[in-house]
């Protein structure tokens, strides 16, 4: 209570009436799958271009996530979290130290933002800032160059970096607005920086980017030009490149530098000793290393046939040891081909692949066998600290997610059920499940294994254009469907069934579905995607995987998720308020006001609010025992609109002049 201790006028504010409830978003998706690169902690992306900047581009015909994320944005999606899935045990690449100043202590550590061998194709360069501090350049190559080079200097070297990040005028002062942790670690899609133990800070005083003509050279040294730094150890840890004349093309790391004589000692003897004609360039480019994908086996094949490959000595001698794993030809005959191993004979080391090789491997073929992702790779555990959790466990921490999807989930044992269980446990999101590629009408009965009101099932797959390869790809439909959910929510509302909606980006279907086939599939809870002449490819079903008639339709389930989550978030102010008649009345007012607004959008059936919903919060909904134990109970009933799934026009002949 306020205190009134001296005479005067007191003006006080107080709250009365309902508090507004703001409807929650229902269109933010969470995608799980394999990407070219990037972080493994779920990351928000708001466009296809942003996805490419953070996670890379297409990976080939059997890695579906990029195609489905693009389909999401093509069909009206605005926001999605991407959870990159990797094998447990994959390692992140690092560069042990990147020199900032002369002296052993002043350096940064650089680590790839996520696990995997992709980080070995990242390089960093430190040079003086244009105004102050230092400049950090980060380069990533999708295909590794044959030798590391400085892209800022050598513009002709190939391949050019796929992605470049540049941060200028960085500081190692934690109080500075340009502190590298704020400028780089907060936004980089490629690396994370750290301080070397014992680092004392400072700006670069080494002349990174220095270029000149050598005065002389010896077996393991080079004498730099008179314009070089006079500071001892100024170039230690940097690279010296011979860019023209004698010794052109060689690169070595400087291990010691004497400023008074300008003699740089290099880490390994020159193949061709530089001389007074050699043009050199000093750079601080450092490649990350040590990143790795968990491998089952790698080596050079002994032989190959139309549908087999004989593995190298040292491969497992256990029958079927590699079944279900992917084998990729990394070099030699058959370069670039990928297949799945369907059988393996340990005594002969002969692996049978699922489809015949386009180019048969031979004894020159270098292969890599990678274990397939399994359910635990998608689920991950709670072993990581909050804010660093991955996979479905990471999605639990993100309240914004309302749709959950993993392309080709049927290809991972147990994953469809895990996605649905995730949604059932949290009760604030909905799972989209695809049929397996090649499924036929006779073998589709998804409710037999995943009966749920928190998921929907879609069939068949879509054909889309891969703009990089210029060919059609067969992809699962769920990403496009998630985009349609988002588009329908935005344009019409969550109460509108996400069906009879055009699928943007699809050029054809895996199988054409007839009305007779849909007559079989629709009662089973299979939402069919069909092609209609003159109307394009459309989603032609809106059923959940539930056998309960109350929760038959996708829009009804998602409308209730919207209502429940909005009321939950909009009534947090009620907690610990005095639990008595004034509070009950205010809660009633708040929810009635919210539901009236929902009714006016057309989401609830009924000609009046009284027909559309009721709200009770009084002595009829709670006992004295409830009140004594701190429970406020409010009972709400709503009448959701149902979709016109079967539109029937009954027509009869009419005799002129007859009375109806």
Automatic annotation (TrEMBL):
Residues 546-651 form the Tail sheath protein C-terminal domain. It holds the Pfam family Phage_sheath_1. Belongs to the myoviridae tail sheath protein family. This is Phage tail sheath protein, putative. It comes from Geobacter sulfurreducens (strain ATCC 51573 / DSM 12127 / PCA). Residues 419-545 form the Tail sheath protein subtilisin-like domain. Gene3D superfamilies: 3.40.50.11780.
């Amino acid at each position: 209570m306020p205190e009134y201790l001296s005479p005067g006028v007191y003006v006080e504010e107080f709250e009365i009436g309902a508090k507004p409830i703001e409807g929650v978003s229902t269109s933010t998706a969470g995608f799980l799958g394999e990407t070219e690169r990037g972080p493994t902690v779920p990351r928000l992306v708001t466009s296809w271009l942003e996805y490419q900047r953070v996670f890379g581009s297409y990976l080939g015909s059997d890695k579906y996530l990029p195609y489905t994320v693009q389909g999401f944005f093509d069909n009206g999606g605005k926001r999605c979290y991407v959870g990159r899935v990797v094998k447990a045990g994959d390692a992140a690449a690092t560069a042990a130290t990147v020199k900032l100043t002369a002296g052993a202590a002043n350096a940064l550590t650089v680590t790839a933002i996520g696990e995997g061998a992709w980080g070995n194709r990242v390089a960093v360069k430190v040079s003086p800032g244009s105004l102050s501090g230092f400049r950090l350049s980060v380069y990533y190559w999708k295909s590794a160059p044959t030798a590391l080079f400085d892209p800022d200097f050598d513009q002709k070297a190939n391949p050019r970096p796929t992605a470049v990040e540049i941060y200028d005028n960085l500081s190692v002062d934690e109080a500075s607005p340009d502190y590298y942790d704020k400028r780089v670690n907060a936004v980089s899609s490629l690396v994370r920086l750290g301080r070397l133990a014992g680092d004392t800070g400072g700006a670069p005083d080494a002349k990174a980017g220095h270029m000149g003509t050598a005065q002389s050279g010896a077996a393991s040294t080079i004498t730099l030009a008179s314009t070089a730094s006079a500071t001892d150890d100024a170039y230690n840890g940097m690279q010296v490149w011979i860019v023209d004349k004698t010794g052109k093309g060689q690169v070595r790391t400087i291990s010691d530098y004497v400023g008074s004589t300008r003699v740089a000692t290099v880490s390994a003897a020159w193949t061709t000793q530089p001389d007074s004609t050699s043009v050199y360039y000093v750079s601080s480019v450092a490649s990350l290393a040590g990143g790795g994908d968990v491998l089952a086996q790698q080596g050079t094949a002994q032989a190959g046939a139309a549908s087999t490959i004989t593995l190298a000595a040292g491969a497992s001698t256990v029958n079927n040891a590699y079944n279900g794993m992917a084998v990729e030809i990394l070099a030699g005959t058959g370069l670039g081909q990928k297949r799945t191993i369907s059988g393996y004979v340990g005594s002969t080391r002969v692996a049978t692949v699922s489809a015949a090789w386009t180019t048969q491997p031979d004894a020159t073929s270098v292969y890599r066998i990678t274990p397939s992702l399994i359910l635990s790779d998608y689920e991950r555990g709670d072993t990581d600290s909050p804010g660093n959790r991955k996979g479905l466990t990471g999605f639990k921490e993100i309240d914004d997610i309302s749709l959950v999807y993993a392309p080709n989930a049927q290809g991972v044992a147990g994953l469809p059920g895990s996605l649905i269980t995730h949604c059932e446990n949290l009760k604030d999101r909905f799972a989209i499940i695809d049929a397996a590629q090649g499924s036929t009408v006779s073998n589709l009965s998804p409710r037999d294994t995943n009966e749920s009101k928190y998921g929907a099932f879609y069939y068949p797959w879509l054909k889309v254009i891969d703009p990089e390869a210029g060919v059609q790809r067969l992809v699962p439909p769920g990403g496009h469907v998630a985009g349609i959910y988002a588009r329908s929510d935005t344009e019409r509302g969550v109460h509108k069934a996400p069906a009879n909606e055009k699928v943007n980006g699809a050029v054809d279907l895996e199988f054409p579905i007839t009305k007779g086939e849909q007559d079989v599939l629709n009662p089973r809870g299979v939402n069919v995607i069909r092609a209609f002449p003159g109307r394009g490819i459309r989603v032609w079903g809106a059923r959940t995987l539930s056998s309960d008639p109350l929760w038959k339709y996708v829009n009804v389930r998602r409308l209730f998720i919207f209502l429940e989550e909005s009321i939950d978030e909009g009534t947090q102010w009620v907690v610990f308020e005095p639990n008595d008649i004034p509070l009950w009345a205010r809660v009633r007012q708040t929810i009635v006001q919210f539901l009236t607004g929902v009714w006016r959008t057309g989401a609830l059936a009924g000609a009046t609010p009284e027909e559309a919903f009721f709200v009770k919060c009084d002595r009829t909904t709670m006992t004295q025992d409830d009140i004594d134990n701190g429970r406020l109970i409010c009972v709400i009933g709503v009448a959701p609109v149902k979709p016109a799934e079967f539109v029937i026009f009954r027509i009869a002949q009419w005799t002129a002049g007859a009375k109806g």
